[in-house]
Design brief:
The complex is a heterodimer of chains A (426) and B (449).
Chain A (H helix, E strand, L loop, with lengths): L15 E5 L3 E7 L5 E9 L5 H12 L10 H9 L4 E6 L3 E9 L3 H13 L5 H20 L1 H13 L11 H10 L2 H11 L5 E7 L3 H12 L23 E5 L5 E10 L6 H13 L4 H9 L5 E7 L7 E10 L3 H16 L5 H18 L3 H13 L7 H9 L3 H9 L7 E6 L5
Chain B lengths: L11 E2 L11 E7 L2 E6 L5 E6 L5 E8 L13 H8 L15 H4 L6 E6 L4 E8 L3 H13 L5 H19 L2 H13 L13 H6 L2 H11 L5 E7 L3 H12 L21 E7 L6 E10 L4 H13 L5 H7 L6 E6 L5 E9 L6 H18 L3 H17 L4 H14 L3 H11 L3 H11 L5 E7 L7
Helix pairs in contact in B: 1-7, 3-8, 9-12, 9-15, 10-11, 11-15, 12-14
Chain lengths: 426, 449
């Protein structure tokens, strides 16, 4: 029997405008005390292989580089003069956008965002420049030991063609260099549109007027013509192997230990809580054991990529270990993972972690951007939660057997390990 | 009361006058909606910034102690002490599972601390119901941290891991090389994390003395940002801080100004870092009147797509990213400009472009529209960067460390008052061609200077 968690003092239940617009779903909340406007949102795009992911990434970077009505410089001028920001980001299954500005500047921001989404200019010169910048960023990221470990782990767990499989740097650079303005335009036309569009608008303004504004600019934006489908590419059965990659510039090792996670074992809230208990917070087991008790590392955390109904997720532990602690650190991590996977989760620990999770939710949502991220995450998961206290209800419903089921999915004997660090001494 | 931090009409009034007679707080002033008090018995400065959007609060203690206070042979002491302060105190003993890390994360609080050149800050973002607990813990570790010998060995190992992580990051090494070259004979030259041999040598007694000397009410500012009124702030101070004995006043010692080298070139070895050039000019302390014009100058140079270096380098494909920033410190700081690029053969060209962009401003200044744009940018960024109590507290922390917390509240007005003449004047005065450090990566694995 799980005790229902509660707030010592509930957050104000703000009047949320939760509207089904022609173009998608709009959630707005008024914060009279804030001088800011924070917009965030996303729409769904098809998943694909590494080349498709790269094409979507390049297309997304170009959304803010000019529209058919405003050139790149005009957009930059509108934003920079006001100290406002507008950004776009391509994920595995959705394209996300976010904007932050003074509330007084919302009348400029909403139509600009809509124009960028619907009518990007895709100037050939911009395509060349953004492609070069993206290539430089990929090369730079590939030198980072953690990023390198992440790429190698993705290839150990997922077959080529799977959205979570990260092809080699050389392969991605080859693909990228072959992409041109026609590819980008075709990608936008075929894949970008009001497909499961979500908009979250928070700040010192009237959310109803904001919804009307979005409706006016996005009403005729339709879903793309290409149907959204999953991918046939699968996952590789984990074998519990260790891969070691020498990295000349490192004085310590970046270690990733991970596995894939299937949708059938966990809903979003249960998996989120399980990850917090394992290593997703300072109050987690891994931090308590590896950092606080054994002093094996400065940095340890577990990370979860939510599984979807048609796409496996990923659960991994990231640790930075000095060479003299490498073997002990990995052994200690595995011991914690085994204890966790065995389902050793007592009721009082669950209650403690639930209380911590509720508090963390409150403090994470204590900014417009934090609250916006929380709401969007829930809407994307299909949870439909537009209030923090509703999420707490969902948290209260998580049972020990549910958590144990998620934890068992770790299968410690089959976890893949990737170590990127200094060459071992002979 | 609802306030708009940073862009409200600045009024300089006595702080909240409605304190109960028994309150330990003495009103000092109210600036930009933030109240300053002194705790009568021990000199603790208290700042209260009401923020009512959510039932949370940040409680932060800023001590006037940073790496510049580390004794010779004990470089890294302030940072190691910061780590040790999480190992428990007399009433919140880790061995009884009652330390800050046992209690506050368990209620969802975000708990952390940072050490920098001039200051150390400890902060707890908590659900409002837990604010008293956070205050009790902070007060207890101000008075009586355990600083246990076994814990010291554990934490020393963790700090050395952190040291190795930073040392393995080429960008960290480049940034440090710039500061070391610019502040050769000044404490700012030494990395905040310290020196490996010194970290190994720090004893429990060293830490006790460092704590005794610097972690006391007269050398601290308690900042509370959140969903509470003055009466609650007063009650928290009365319950947890007012009874702490005074141990003297703030440490007023500021090291002698550094002897900046005329011109210095530093090569930092790295076999795999993205090519980067860093250019740094010595500038005055953070409260100097020229610093605001320098802030705007940084935006003119690299504040976005319309900035000069973006046009000169990024738009032409010569660089991937450019940045410029001003350090606002208690002592002198640096005006730093960086460019990252993909073509390792372009070092000289990028270097020339950075120097030329600065020289152009020295010679020709900036035009009125350009300045108007970056002023709008600065104002907007100031507001949007204060989204939530933790962001507000962190900005207040830096203003406290620079020596005047009200600079947080007056920033928008000061920036608005900068003229085109000011920008050209500060460029000519401080960004001199005969006094700068230029650093870049070279292939290899050892440092060369």
């Amino acid at each position: 029997m799980n005790a229902k968690p509660s707030f010592d003092r509930a957050p104000p239940r703000r009047a949320a405008r939760d509207l089904a617009l022609d173009c998608g779903r709009f959630v707005g909340m008024r914060f009279d005390e804030s001088p800011l406007a924070a917009l965030t949102g996303s729409f769904r795009t098809p998943r694909g292989d590494g080349r498709m992911a790269l094409l979507q990434q390049l297309t997304t970077r170009l959304l803010g580089c000019g529209t058919v009505r405003r050139d790149r410089r005009s957009i930059a001028d509108a934003l920079e003069r006001r100290g406002a920001s507008l950004s776009f980001e391509a994920g595995t299954a959705r394209i996300a956008f976010s904007a932050l500005a003074c509330a007084d500047d919302l009348p400029m921001l909403a139509p600009l965002l809509a124009q960028c989404l619907r009518e990007p200019r895709f100037d050939p010169e911009d395509v060349v420049r953004e492609r070069a910048q993206l290539a430089a960023e990929l090369r730079y990221a590939a030198q980072d030991p953690h990023m390198l470990a992440s790429a190698v782990l993705s290839r150990r767990l997922f077959e080529a063609g799977h959205p979570h499989h990260e092809p080699s740097l050389e392969q991605r650079i080859d693909w990228l260099e072959a992409l041109g303005v026609d590819d980008v335009r075709a990608c936008h036309e075929a894949l970008f549109g009001a497909n499961e569009l979500l908009v979250v608008a928070l700040g010192g303004f009237d959310p109803s007027s904001c919804a009307v504004e979005f409706e006016q600019h996005l009403r005729t934006w339709r879903p793309p013509r290409r149907p959204i489908t999953g991918t046939d590419a699968g996952a590789i059965p984990p074998r519990g192997e260790t891969t070691r990659i020498p990295h000349s510039g490192s004085t310590s090792s970046s270690v990733l230990i991970g596995t894939r996670l299937t949708f059938d074992v966990a809903d979003g809230v249960t998996a989120w809580l399980a990850n917090r208990i394992l290593g997703g917070s300072y109050a987690s087991r891994l931090v308590a054991s590896l950092r606080e008790r054994q002093a094996l590392t400065y940095s340890v955390r577990s990370e979860l990529i939510d599984p979807q109904s048609d796409l496996d997720g990923l659960w991994r532990v990231a640790i930075a270990l000095g060479e003299d602690k490498l073997e002990r650190g990995i052994a200690a991590t595995r011991a914690e993972l085994e204890r966790f996977a065995d389902g050793d989760i007592a009721t009082d620990e669950l209650d403690r972690q639930r209380r911590a999770a509720i508090g963390a939710l409150l403090v994470d949502a204590a900014s417009l951007q934090g609250m916006g991220a929380f709401l969007l995450r829930n809407l994307e998961r299909g949870a439909g939660v537009v209030h923090v206290d509703a999420f707490v209800e969902a948290l209260a419903a998580v049972s020990t057997p549910q958590l144990q089921r998620v934890a068992a999915a770790l299968q410690p004997a089959r976890l893949e390990t990737v170590i990127v660090g200094p060459e071992p001494e002979a | 009361m609802t306030i708009v931090h940073g862009d409200s009409a600045i009024v300089d009034l006595p702080a909240e006058p409605t304190l109960a007679a028994a309150s330990p707080l003495q009103p000092v002033r109210r600036v930009g909606g933030i109240d300053e008090y002194r705790s009568a018995g021990n000199g603790l400065r208290v700042l209260h910034a009401p923020w009512h959007a959510a039932p949370v609060a940040v409680l932060m203690l800023t001590y006037d102690v940073g790496s510049r206070h580390d004794p010779v042979g004990r470089k890294g002491m302030s940072h190691l002490l910061e780590h040790m302060m999480f190992k428990g105190s007399r009433a919140f003993d880790r061995r009884k599972r009652a330390s800050i890390l046992d209690l506050l994360p368990a209620v969802g609080a975000k708990v952390n601390a940072t050490t920098w050149l001039d200051r150390t800050n400890y902060f707890d973002l908590v659900p409002i119901a837990e604010l008293d607990l956070a205050a009790a813990i902070e007060a207890d570790r101000m008075c009586d941290p355990l600083l246990d010998a076994d814990d010291l060995e554990v934490e020393r190992a963790i700090v050395l891991d952190e040291f190795d992580l930073r040392d393995g990051d080429p960008n960290e090494r480049l940034a440090q090389a710039v500061w070391s070259a610019a502040f050769a004979d000044h404490p700012y030259a030494v990395p905040v994390i310290g020196v490996r041999e010194d970290i190994l040598a720090i004893s429990r007694e060293d830490l006790r003395e460092h704590h005794r000397r610097y972690c006391h009410p007269g050398n601290a500012t308690l900042t509370i940002v959140g969903d509470l009124d003055t009466a609650r702030v007063s009650a928290i101070v009365a319950a947890h801080f007012a009874g702490i004995p005074a141990r003297g006043n703030a440490d007023a010692h500021v090291p002698a100004p550094p002897t900046h080298p005329a011109r210095r070139r530093v090569d930092v070895a790295s076999s795999d870092a993205m090519p980067m050039v860093a250019l740094a000019y010595p500038i005055p302390h953070g409260l100097h009147r020229d610093t605001d014009a320098l802030e705007l100058l940084a935006l003119v140079l690299a504040g976005g797509m319309l900035s000069r270096l973006h046009a000169d380098l990024v738009a032409l494909g010569l660089a991937v990213a450019v940045s410029a920033r001003v350090s606002r410190l208690r002592g002198p700081g640096l005006f730093e400009v960086q460019a990252a690029f993909d073509d390792a053969a372009a070092f000289d060209r990028v270097e020339r472009a950075l120097l030329a962009a600065v020289a152009r401003i020295r010679a020709q200044g900036v035009d009125a529209d350009e300045l108007a744009r970056v002023k709008g940018q600065a104002r907007g960024q100031l507001l949007t960067s204060r989204d939530g109590p933790i962001a507000i507290a962190m900005q207040l922390n830096e203003a406290i460390a620079a020596g005047d917390w009200t600079s947080y509240a007056t920033a928008s007005e000061r920036l608005a008052a900068v003229s085109t003449q000011d920008v050209q004047r500060v460029a000519a005065l401080h960004l001199r061609d005969d006094a700068h450090v230029l650093a870049r990566f070279v292939a290899g694995s050892g440092d060369a200077a």
